[in-house]
Design brief:
555 residues; 6 domains; 8% strand; Arc Repressor Mutant, subunit A; alpha/beta
């Protein structure tokens, strides 16, 4: 506990120096003005000694030539924290992050507990007080500017009225009061506030209003003081779902399970899992469209990996959602935590459906979990471990032979397949019930009307090149399998390559392998199917075989 104005003055002078050396003359001036006593140096030494005892190792005070230097690196000092926060808030405001600016500047201003240097000597107050007070007022005006940009004019009018009365010649405060009054439909009061300021400036200082006050008055008269235009999506109900597939076959049981989950009063997250190309996204989009009307406040959709298979930044995904929910780009909070808070606040009073596609880790899910009872979340993932506690997990299996033929017929047409039943059956078998492979096969037949069905069957028949043949436009089975492979660890990749060299069983083109701990992980990622033996889908096996061959050739 510090006692006496002079002791506090020595401490305040050293702190305000920010680590610079303060000479004996400067300290004597702050303590005694122009009349230092003969024992000034001894008294200063005594004050410094008391401070050293008080702070110990937290802040060292060193004698340097004819002065003192205080190291405040370990000291929690209000004025240092204030300067840092005020600068951060000003930067956020300049960059258009108004919510961040308001929050940070409020923290800075909360460090003030009264007038600057209230218990120090009059001399120190006269020298340092105006600078500190100006810094506080600048931060206060910046915080009000941020709040005005956020549309908080009704909450600000009383505060600004008091501030203008306390600082009648501070033009920026008057500008802010005029703006708040105008946006509260009090145009006459805003005009009166301007004229009052103009008279005071003329009477007390003999000057005219400055450019900012004059320009604000002109904008007031022309109606340009209204709130900035809202975000481009303001008033628009988000409808971000991809287009539903025209040809969708099977999955009746899975759709019924999703239907039951979404009809609950407090729906738990729904997680759709399965191997690459099994149709997870198609099912999620079909179910979301089927239930779109049950979520009248809109539908949000995001792929959590880029086309180059890099994880998307979650703050950027949330930023896109917030813009879709009507938040202007310039008012987006910076940083993931603040965006999560705003996202949850917006969804708390809305009934929305959120779809996250291609999730890889639980950390990618957490920011998007709705906290209210009205919104729902559908997730697609190759790894079921992403599922939050309580989720409804739906695992997808390959289509049956009958469903596979129906999918081909829906795209290609019944007549073309009916004319070549054996070739059709071969394509169905070679695609192994994998919807992506079947859609690619169908797309190749449609884009090559001169082909017979047997022509495609002949191309797919050689197992070594089958996966390479399953490409059409942006549909690429090998690329889809490679994405899942690239996300595995080195040991897991090695096992996948070894499986490709292990040979096939007689069970419909599946691979049997010995049980090992690492295989459990691959099974959870749907690259294997667990049972009495581990089995690999025939197309995954053929692709993995190619990986092993490439590795062998490289050696």
């Amino acid at each position: 506990m510090l006692h006496g104005a002079k002791q506090r003055t020595v401490l305040a002078t050293l702190l305000l120096a920010d680590g610079r050396v303060v000479s004996d003359e400067q300290l004597a001036d702050r303590l005694w003005d122009e009349h230092p006593p003969a024992t000034a140096s001894a008294q200063i030494y005594t004050y410094v000694s008391r401070l050293r005892k008080l702070f110990g190792a937290a802040a060292t005070i060193t004698r340097v030539t004819t002065g003192y230097q205080m190291n405040v690196d370990r000291l929690a000092c209000d004025h240092i924290q204030f300067d840092q926060l005020a600068q951060a808030g000003a930067t956020a405001l300049a960059e258009g992050h108004c919510a961040d600016a308001s929050s940070v500047l409020r923290r800075a201003l909360a460090l003030w507990r009264g007038p600057a240097l209230d218990d120090a000597t009059a001399r120190l107050i006269a020298i340092e007080g105006p600078r500190l007070t100006e810094a506080r007022m600048t931060a206060l005006e910046a915080r009000i500017e941020a709040d005005l940009a956020l549309g908080r004019h009704r909450q600000l009018t009383a505060e600004l009225t008091g501030l203008v009365a306390e600082h009648p010649l501070r033009e920026r405060l008057r500008v802010q009061l005029m703006t708040a009054l105008y946006r509260c439909d009090r145009q006459a009061d805003a005009v009166a506030t301007y004229h009052e300021g103009r008279r005071l400036l003329a009477d007390e200082l003999g000057v005219d209003p400055g450019p900012e006050l004059t320009e604000t008055y002109q904008r007031l008269l022309t109606g340009a003081l209204a709130l900035p235009r809202p975000g481009a999506w303001a008033g628009v109900i988000p409808a971000m779902l991809p287009r539903d597939l025209a040809h969708f076959v099977g999955r009746e049981a899975e759709l019924a399970s999703i239907d039951a989950g979404l009809r609950l009063k407090s729906p738990d997250p729904i997680v759709i899992t399965g191997m690459p190309g099994i149709g997870k996204t198609a099912l999620a989009v079909r179910a979301a469209h089927a239930h779109a009307a049950a979520f009248p406040d809109g539908h949000l959709f995001a792929e959590l990996h880029t086309p180059a298979d890099q994880p998307r930044r979650l703050d950027e995904v949330l930023g896109g959602f917030l813009v879709a929910l009507g938040i202007p780009q310039q008012m987006l909070p910076s940083g993931l935590d603040l965006r999560v808070q705003l996202y949850r606040s917006l969804l708390a009073t809305r009934r929305m459906l959120v779809v996250l596609d291609d999730v890889e880790t639980p950390e990618q899910v957490l920011p998007f979990l709705p906290t209210g009872d009205s919104s729902a979340l559908i997730i697609t993932s190759q790894a079921p471990g992403v599922a939050p506690v309580g989720s409804r997990v739906i695992g997808l299996e390959p289509l049956t032979a009958h469903q596979s033929r129906d999918l081909l017929a829906a795209v290609v047409g019944q007549r073309r397949l009916r004319d070549e039943p054996e070739a059709t059956a071969q394509i169905v078998s070679d695609c192994g019930g994998l919807p992506l492979a079947l859609r690619i096969a169908a797309a190749r037949l449609v884009s090559n009307p001169g082909w017979r069905v047997a022509d495609l069957a002949r191309r797919l028949r050689p197992a070594r090149h089958r996966v390479e043949e399953l490409v059409s436009g942006n549909l690429n089975l090998q690329q889809r399998l490679q994405r899942g492979y690239a996300r595995l660890g080195t040991a897991h990749q090695s096992v996948v390559r070894r499986l490709g060299q292990s040979g096939t069983s007689s069970q419909g083109g599946y691979v049997a392998v010995d049980v090992a701990l690492i295989l459990d992980d691959l099974a959870e990622r749907h690259l294997l199917k667990a049972g009495q033996q581990y089995r690999m889908h025939q197309l995954t096996y053929l692709w993995a075989q190619g990986l092993g061959d490439a590795e062998h050739e490289a050696c």
